[in-house]
Specification:
Length: 231
């Protein structure tokens, strides 16, 4: 049974999340403050955290960063009433994996939770490691190397890179990447994709610099998508 931590100070929304998730078979802990969330994070692990960005005792982005450190393997989904895209980007860069804008429907939320908790990777993990220039992506071990330097990637960063590496040199559309890596019925903003691409580029460049080898390149195709360069 997947364990979900709900961090939400709004009583009606918190109650809705708690009952909705429990009704769908999830084990749920509900905390109303950042202090409570950090206390929970020190205990037995969680598979997913639903994190309201507007909490009374700590900025949600700061809390997201602390939860990312305390729960490195846990999926963090931010809940935000803020329409400002900069806030969403700050949240995603702080370590969150995804976000939902309030008001959201329970059907959409449950679809998103299921997509994140799906255990099977969207790519065939029995295949041999993919080698693209200095880059090596090992699906079975879920590890990624640039030259001799191992790159530490978060779950969705790895899934995204693995998807790109399956067809190096091929232009992949935003829609295809979103549906293969995140959710088959994705709707809404694809900002999440851009933030994950930016993180991948940063990490791959840092590893290439550390190992003194050529840097794997992910090219942006304006209005279309992305391509991992075959070198
Ligand atoms: Ca709130």
């Amino acid at each position: 049974v997947a364990r979900i931590l709900v961090v939400e100070d709004d009583e009606p929304i918190g109650r809705l999340l708690e009952s909705g998730l429990r009704a769908n078979g999830y084990e749920v802990e509900w905390e109303r403050t950042a202090a409570g969330a950090l206390h929970q994070a020190a205990g037995p692990g969680f598979d997913l955290v639903m994190l309201d960005l507007g909490l009374p005792d700590l900025d949600g982005v700061v809390l997201s960063r602390e939860l990312r450190v305390a729960l490195p393997a846990t999926v963090i989904v931010m809940l935000t009433a803020r329409r400002d895209e900069m806030d969403v980007v700050a949240g995603l860069e702080s370590g969150a994996d995804d976000y939902l804008t309030k008001p959201f429907g329970m059907v959409e939320l449950l679809a998103r939770v299921r997509a994140h908790l799906r255990r099977n990777s969207p790519v065939d993990d029995r295949s041999a490691p993919a080698r693209i220039g200095s880059l090596r992506v090992d699906l079975a071990a879920r590890s990624c190397w640039v030259g001799d330097v191992e790159v530490t990637l978060r779950t969705k960063e790895f899934d995204l890179l693995a998807r790109l590496a399956r067809e190096p040199g091929t232009a992949l559309t935003r829609e295809l990447l979103m549906s293969d890596v995140w959710d088959e019925n994705w709707f809404g903003s694809t900002k999440t994709l851009d933030v994950h691409i930016a993180a991948l580029r940063r990490k791959l460049a840092a590893a290439a610099a550390a190992g003194g080898c050529a840097e794997p390149t992910i090219t942006t195709l304006r209005g279309h998508g992305y391509r991992l360069e075959a070198s």
